Amino acid sequence: MPAFVLWLMTVPDALAAFPATVQPSGMAEQAGEVVIDPELLGAAWEDLVRELGTAVANQPITPAASLGLYGWEVGVASQFLFIRAKDRQGELSPWDRAWADEDPPEYLVVPTIGVRKGLPLSTEAGFNVGWISGSSTGIVSGYGRLAILEAYRPAPDLSVQVGYSGYIGNEEVELGVLDLGITLGTTALTGVIPGVNSAAVSPWINFSTLRVSASPRGIDEDTLAEIGVVPYKRGTEEGLKAPLVVPRFGAGLQVAARNVHLRTVITWAPTTIPTATAGMGFTF
Question: Which one of 88, 196, 211, 240 is separated from 273 by 20 to 30 angstroms, measured CA to CA?
Fold first, then answer.
């Protein structure tokens, strides 16, 4: 049997060695003491859904311009989730309450691999997969983009995007994020000799609306009532709440030389946690 196939067979066992880290059922107990306050824990669950949704959502990691009909892109990146950055006014964070060992890190790291393909009429599609380091959970996402305006200098490039991301591998949380966004940017050439020592610098800004849906699973009804956890999703069933809507702002910069690029992007939202992403890739 090929070595690559043997390696793939070991992946499930390797992931099983890591904890799920986020366990809402554990919110009923903190530091060895039982917490009997469904309203408090329900608010913590809402914050957790909002912040986890921000982490899971597609990041605005691409410039405003499209790849073009025949373009391909493959890249890797690391996303940093600053779960301690939000001011909690002296209260425990939802990560403290829901973290398996009640001791979350200062930030989470999500290594990702992405593929993007140019399509006709200035459109493109992309796919990303990532692993939340130190856990058995990950992220799978896809998106489509349309460049409404590009390469009409001095006008900026303008594109819109719609995408969906899913949080996978957690036995107690089912979560997905629909993102709708707009990106505005430009590209400037630097260097003396084009094609020899030149590079293209592309800054951009982004605004996105994230619609976060989440449901608990594998938790008995009595525990759900104790911790005030409810589903955030569309439907007519009793007890459902509407998906959470999160406005998010982002800014990024790409430096590309020939077919290699380096990128960095930061995001901020007034109701949730900031993130930063850095990566590199190849276009051809």
Answer: 240
